Protein backbone atom coordinates (compact mmCIF):
# COMPACT_ATOMS: atom_id res chain seq x y z
CA UNK A 1 0.00 0.00 0.00
CA UNK A 2 1.10 3.53 -0.66
CA UNK A 3 2.16 5.23 2.55
CA UNK A 4 0.52 8.62 2.54
CA UNK A 5 2.75 9.91 5.30
CA UNK A 6 5.83 9.25 3.29
CA UNK A 7 8.09 12.24 2.80
CA UNK A 8 8.40 11.01 -0.74
CA UNK A 9 4.97 12.39 -1.63
CA UNK A 10 4.95 13.99 -5.08
CA UNK A 11 2.70 16.78 -3.85
CA UNK A 12 2.21 17.98 -0.28
CA UNK A 13 0.00 20.55 1.37
CA UNK A 14 1.59 21.24 4.75
CA UNK A 15 -0.40 22.80 7.61
CA UNK A 16 -1.99 25.30 5.26
CA UNK A 17 -3.86 28.25 6.75
CA UNK A 18 -5.62 31.00 4.87
CA UNK A 19 -8.86 32.16 3.33
CA UNK A 20 -10.25 35.32 1.80
CA UNK A 21 -8.81 38.52 3.25
CA UNK A 22 -9.64 38.56 6.96
CA UNK A 23 -11.90 35.51 6.70
CA UNK A 24 -9.92 32.46 7.75
CA UNK A 25 -11.21 29.31 6.07
CA UNK A 26 -8.25 26.90 6.20
CA UNK A 27 -7.15 26.19 9.76
CA UNK A 28 -4.19 23.93 9.10
CA UNK A 29 -4.74 21.43 6.31
CA UNK A 30 -2.22 18.72 5.51
CA UNK A 31 -2.56 16.52 2.43
CA UNK A 32 0.06 14.11 1.05
CA UNK A 33 -0.22 12.85 -2.50
CA UNK A 34 2.17 9.98 -3.29
CA UNK A 35 3.50 9.76 -6.84
CA UNK A 36 1.19 7.79 -9.17
CA UNK A 37 -1.66 7.75 -6.67
CA UNK A 38 -5.24 9.00 -6.65
CA UNK A 39 -6.07 11.02 -3.54
CA UNK A 40 -9.51 12.46 -2.80
CA UNK A 41 -10.59 15.19 -0.42
CA UNK A 42 -14.21 15.00 0.72
CA UNK A 43 -16.19 16.95 3.29
CA UNK A 44 -19.34 19.00 3.76
CA UNK A 45 -20.20 22.11 1.72
CA UNK A 46 -18.10 25.03 2.83
CA UNK A 47 -15.43 22.84 4.47
CA UNK A 48 -12.74 24.63 2.46
CA UNK A 49 -12.04 21.97 -0.16
CA UNK A 50 -12.04 24.33 -3.13
CA UNK A 51 -10.19 26.94 -1.08
CA UNK A 52 -7.17 24.63 -0.86
CA UNK A 53 -6.94 24.53 -4.65
CA UNK A 54 -7.75 28.22 -4.96
CA UNK A 55 -4.94 29.06 -2.52
CA UNK A 56 -2.52 27.26 -4.84
CA UNK A 57 -3.76 29.41 -7.72
CA UNK A 58 -3.71 32.66 -5.70
CA UNK A 59 -7.50 33.01 -5.84
CA UNK A 60 -7.48 32.59 -2.06
CA UNK A 61 -4.93 33.92 0.42
CA UNK A 62 -2.37 31.90 2.36
CA UNK A 63 -1.33 33.07 5.81
CA UNK A 64 0.90 30.14 6.74
CA UNK A 65 1.95 26.67 5.70
CA UNK A 66 3.42 25.44 2.45
CA UNK A 67 2.69 23.47 -0.69
CA UNK A 68 5.52 21.53 -2.29
CA UNK A 69 6.09 19.47 -5.39
CA UNK A 70 8.79 16.81 -5.10
CA UNK A 71 9.82 15.49 -8.50
CA UNK A 72 12.43 12.81 -7.88
CA UNK A 73 13.95 14.74 -5.02
CA UNK A 74 13.80 18.13 -6.76
CA UNK A 75 11.50 20.16 -4.52
CA UNK A 76 9.57 23.15 -5.85
CA UNK A 77 7.81 25.69 -3.63
CA UNK A 78 4.39 25.68 -5.31
CA UNK A 79 3.13 28.80 -3.50
CA UNK A 80 6.15 30.73 -4.75
CA UNK A 81 5.33 29.71 -8.31
CA UNK A 82 3.08 32.03 -10.33
CA UNK A 83 -0.23 30.36 -11.26
CA UNK A 84 0.47 30.64 -14.99
CA UNK A 85 3.77 28.82 -14.50
CA UNK A 86 2.31 25.87 -12.59
CA UNK A 87 1.52 23.86 -15.72
CA UNK A 88 5.12 24.15 -16.85
CA UNK A 89 6.33 22.56 -13.59
CA UNK A 90 3.86 19.71 -14.06
CA UNK A 91 0.80 20.82 -12.11
CA UNK A 92 -2.50 20.81 -14.04
CA UNK A 93 -5.76 22.22 -12.67
CA UNK A 94 -9.39 21.77 -13.62
CA UNK A 95 -11.41 24.31 -11.61
CA UNK A 96 -14.92 23.65 -10.31
CA UNK A 97 -16.51 26.21 -12.64
CA UNK A 98 -15.50 28.30 -15.65
CA UNK A 99 -12.99 25.71 -16.71
CA UNK A 100 -13.12 26.26 -20.50
CA UNK A 101 -13.09 29.25 -22.86
CA UNK A 102 -16.59 29.15 -24.42
CA UNK A 103 -15.79 31.68 -27.19
CA UNK A 104 -12.78 29.70 -28.43
CA UNK A 105 -13.00 26.57 -30.56
CA UNK A 106 -12.33 23.16 -29.05
CA UNK A 107 -9.02 23.10 -30.89
CA UNK A 108 -8.04 26.52 -29.55
CA UNK A 109 -8.97 25.49 -26.01
CA UNK A 110 -6.58 22.56 -26.34
CA UNK A 111 -3.84 24.80 -27.73
CA UNK A 112 -4.17 27.10 -24.73
CA UNK A 113 -3.41 24.12 -22.50
CA UNK A 114 -0.27 23.12 -24.33
CA UNK A 115 3.08 23.63 -22.64
CA UNK A 116 6.18 23.56 -24.77
CA UNK A 117 8.75 21.26 -23.17
CA UNK A 118 11.91 20.17 -24.97
CA UNK A 119 10.63 16.90 -26.38
CA UNK A 120 6.97 17.46 -27.00
CA UNK A 121 4.94 18.65 -29.88
CA UNK A 122 1.52 20.28 -29.98
CA UNK A 123 0.16 18.17 -32.85
CA UNK A 124 1.32 14.87 -31.36
CA UNK A 125 -0.23 15.57 -27.99
CA UNK A 126 -3.42 16.90 -29.55
CA UNK A 127 -3.76 13.84 -31.78
CA UNK A 128 -3.32 11.70 -28.70
CA UNK A 129 -6.08 13.65 -26.94
CA UNK A 130 -8.36 13.34 -29.99
CA UNK A 131 -7.83 9.60 -29.96
CA UNK A 132 -8.81 9.48 -26.34
CA UNK A 133 -11.79 11.80 -26.84
CA UNK A 134 -13.15 11.29 -30.37
CA UNK A 135 -16.12 13.61 -29.63
CA UNK A 136 -13.71 16.50 -29.29
CA UNK A 137 -12.13 15.73 -32.63
CA UNK A 138 -15.49 15.72 -34.41
CA UNK A 139 -16.22 19.16 -32.94
CA UNK A 140 -12.67 20.51 -33.15
CA UNK A 141 -13.65 23.68 -35.04
CA UNK A 142 -16.83 24.39 -33.06
CA UNK A 143 -16.96 26.93 -30.28
CA UNK A 144 -16.54 25.28 -26.88
CA UNK A 145 -19.67 27.13 -25.73
CA UNK A 146 -21.76 24.83 -27.93
CA UNK A 147 -20.71 21.70 -26.01
CA UNK A 148 -22.96 19.85 -23.55
CA UNK A 149 -22.09 19.83 -19.85
CA UNK A 150 -20.43 16.42 -20.09
CA UNK A 151 -18.43 17.41 -23.16
CA UNK A 152 -17.29 20.62 -21.48
CA UNK A 153 -15.99 18.65 -18.53
CA UNK A 154 -14.23 16.34 -20.98
CA UNK A 155 -12.67 19.36 -22.73
CA UNK A 156 -11.56 20.87 -19.43
CA UNK A 157 -9.82 17.62 -18.55
CA UNK A 158 -8.33 17.30 -22.04
CA UNK A 159 -7.05 20.87 -21.88
CA UNK A 160 -5.30 20.13 -18.58
CA UNK A 161 -3.79 16.98 -20.10
CA UNK A 162 -2.35 19.04 -22.98
CA UNK A 163 0.34 20.25 -20.54
CA UNK A 164 1.53 16.65 -19.90
CA UNK A 165 1.03 17.09 -16.14
CA UNK A 166 2.69 15.01 -13.44
CA UNK A 167 -0.26 15.79 -11.19
CA UNK A 168 -3.81 16.90 -11.96
CA UNK A 169 -5.76 18.93 -9.41
CA UNK A 170 -9.47 18.42 -10.02
CA UNK A 171 -12.26 20.34 -8.30
CA UNK A 172 -15.55 18.39 -8.41
CA UNK A 173 -14.94 16.70 -11.79
CA UNK A 174 -18.30 14.91 -11.64
CA UNK A 175 -20.37 17.97 -10.69
CA UNK A 176 -23.41 18.46 -12.89
CA UNK A 177 -22.87 15.29 -14.92
CA UNK A 178 -25.71 12.89 -15.70
CA UNK A 179 -25.33 9.58 -13.78
CA UNK A 180 -24.16 7.65 -16.85
CA UNK A 181 -21.47 10.25 -17.49
CA UNK A 182 -20.36 10.12 -13.86
CA UNK A 183 -19.47 6.44 -14.34
CA UNK A 184 -17.53 7.31 -17.48
CA UNK A 185 -15.74 10.15 -15.72
CA UNK A 186 -14.47 7.96 -12.90
CA UNK A 187 -13.38 5.28 -15.38
CA UNK A 188 -11.58 7.99 -17.32
CA UNK A 189 -9.79 9.20 -14.18
CA UNK A 190 -8.54 5.67 -13.51
CA UNK A 191 -7.23 5.49 -17.09
CA UNK A 192 -5.51 8.85 -16.81
CA UNK A 193 -3.94 7.72 -13.54
CA UNK A 194 -2.77 4.43 -15.07
CA UNK A 195 -1.09 6.44 -17.84
CA UNK A 196 1.17 7.89 -15.14
CA UNK A 197 -0.65 11.02 -13.99
CA UNK A 198 -1.06 11.49 -10.24
CA UNK A 199 -4.49 12.82 -9.24
CA UNK A 200 -5.65 14.99 -6.34
CA UNK A 201 -9.37 15.63 -6.48
CA UNK A 202 -12.07 17.26 -4.44
CA UNK A 203 -15.40 15.47 -4.83
CA UNK A 204 -18.97 15.72 -3.56
CA UNK A 205 -19.59 12.30 -5.00
CA UNK A 206 -17.54 10.99 -2.10
CA UNK A 207 -18.43 7.33 -2.29
CA UNK A 208 -17.57 6.96 -5.96
CA UNK A 209 -14.42 9.06 -5.69
CA UNK A 210 -13.08 7.25 -2.61
CA UNK A 211 -13.76 3.88 -4.24
CA UNK A 212 -11.16 4.64 -6.96
CA UNK A 213 -8.76 6.42 -4.60
CA UNK A 214 -5.64 5.08 -2.95
CA UNK A 215 -6.12 7.49 -0.10
CA UNK A 216 -8.82 9.83 1.16
CA UNK A 217 -9.07 12.81 3.46
CA UNK A 218 -12.17 14.15 5.18
CA UNK A 219 -11.96 17.89 5.67
CA UNK A 220 -14.32 19.76 8.00
CA UNK A 221 -14.27 23.43 9.06
CA UNK A 222 -10.97 23.92 7.27
CA UNK A 223 -9.22 21.14 9.19
CA UNK A 224 -8.27 17.50 8.61
CA UNK A 225 -10.85 15.28 10.31
CA UNK A 226 -10.20 11.74 9.04
CA UNK A 227 -7.93 10.01 6.59
CA UNK A 228 -7.40 6.51 5.37
CA UNK A 229 -7.19 4.14 2.44
CA UNK A 230 -9.87 5.27 -0.04
CA UNK A 231 -11.87 2.06 -0.30
CA UNK A 232 -11.78 1.44 3.48
CA UNK A 233 -13.29 4.86 4.19
CA UNK A 234 -16.39 3.95 2.21
CA UNK A 235 -16.98 1.12 4.72
CA UNK A 236 -16.05 3.01 7.90
CA UNK A 237 -19.32 3.39 9.84
CA UNK A 238 -18.23 6.60 11.54
CA UNK A 239 -17.25 8.30 8.30
CA UNK A 240 -20.28 6.99 6.44
CA UNK A 241 -22.62 8.15 9.21
CA UNK A 242 -21.29 11.66 9.48
CA UNK A 243 -19.87 12.51 6.09
CA UNK A 244 -21.10 10.21 3.36
CA UNK A 245 -24.75 9.78 4.26
CA UNK A 246 -26.84 6.75 3.41
CA UNK A 247 -26.34 4.94 0.14
N1 LIG B 1 -14.33 34.65 -2.51
C1 LIG B 1 -14.75 34.34 -1.29
N2 LIG B 1 -14.82 35.29 -0.32
C2 LIG B 1 -15.25 34.99 0.93
N3 LIG B 1 -15.60 33.76 1.34
C3 LIG B 1 -15.55 32.78 0.43
C4 LIG B 1 -15.13 33.01 -0.93
N4 LIG B 1 -15.18 31.84 -1.58
C5 LIG B 1 -15.60 30.91 -0.69
N5 LIG B 1 -15.82 31.49 0.52
C6 LIG B 1 -16.27 30.81 1.74
O1 LIG B 1 -15.25 29.90 2.15
C7 LIG B 1 -15.82 28.74 2.74
C8 LIG B 1 -15.21 27.50 2.08
O2 LIG B 1 -15.59 27.49 0.72
P1 LIG B 1 -15.07 26.40 -0.30
O3 LIG B 1 -15.56 26.82 -1.63
O4 LIG B 1 -13.62 26.16 -0.12
O5 LIG B 1 -15.86 25.13 0.23
P2 LIG B 1 -15.98 23.68 -0.40
O6 LIG B 1 -15.54 22.73 0.67
O7 LIG B 1 -15.29 23.63 -1.70
O8 LIG B 1 -17.56 23.56 -0.56
P3 LIG B 1 -18.46 22.94 -1.75
O9 LIG B 1 -18.59 21.50 -1.38
O10 LIG B 1 -19.76 23.69 -1.58
O11 LIG B 1 -17.79 23.19 -3.06
C9 LIG B 1 -17.33 28.86 2.56
O12 LIG B 1 -17.87 29.28 3.78
C10 LIG B 1 -17.48 29.94 1.50
O13 LIG B 1 -18.66 30.66 1.70
MG1 LIG C 1 -15.94 23.44 -3.68
How is this structure best described in words?
It is a single chain. By secondary structure, the chain is of the alpha/beta class. It has a domain at 11-96 and 168-244: P-loop containing nucleotide triphosphate hydrolases (Rossmann fold, 3-Layer(aba) Sandwich), CATH 3.40.50.300. The protein is 32% helix and 28% strand. Helix 6 (179-194) links the parallel strand 7 and strand 8. It is globular, with a radius of gyration of 17 Å. Magnesium ion is lined by residues 49-50, 96, 172.
Sheet with most strands = 6 strands, mixed
| Structure class | alpha/beta
- Order of adjacent strands in the largest pleated sheet: 6-7-8-3-9-10
> Considering the protein shown, what is the CATH homologous superfamily of the domain at 11-96 and 168-244?
P-loop containing nucleotide triphosphate hydrolases
* Share of residues in strands: 25-35%
Q: How much helix is in the residues?
A: 25-40%
CATH class of the domain at 11-96 and 168-244: Alpha Beta
Question: Number of helical runs?
Answer: 9
User: Quick one: overall form?
Assistant: globular
Spans of 5+ residues with little confidence (pLDDT < 50)? Answer: 1-6
Ligand identities? adenosine-5'-triphosphate, magnesium ion
What is the average per-residue confidence, as pLDDT, rounded to a whole number?
A: 91
Number of DSSP-assigned strands: 10
Between the first and last Cα atoms, what is the distance in angstroms? 27 Å
Rg, Å, rounded:
17 Å
CATH topology of the domain at 11-96 and 168-244: Rossmann fold
Amino acid sequence: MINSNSDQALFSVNDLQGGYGDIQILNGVTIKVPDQSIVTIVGPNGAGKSTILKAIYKIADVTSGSVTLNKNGVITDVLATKPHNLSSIGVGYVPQIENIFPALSIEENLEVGFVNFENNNLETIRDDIYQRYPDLKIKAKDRAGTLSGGQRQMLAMARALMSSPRILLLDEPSAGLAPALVDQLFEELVKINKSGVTILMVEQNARRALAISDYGYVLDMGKNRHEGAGASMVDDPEIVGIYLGKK
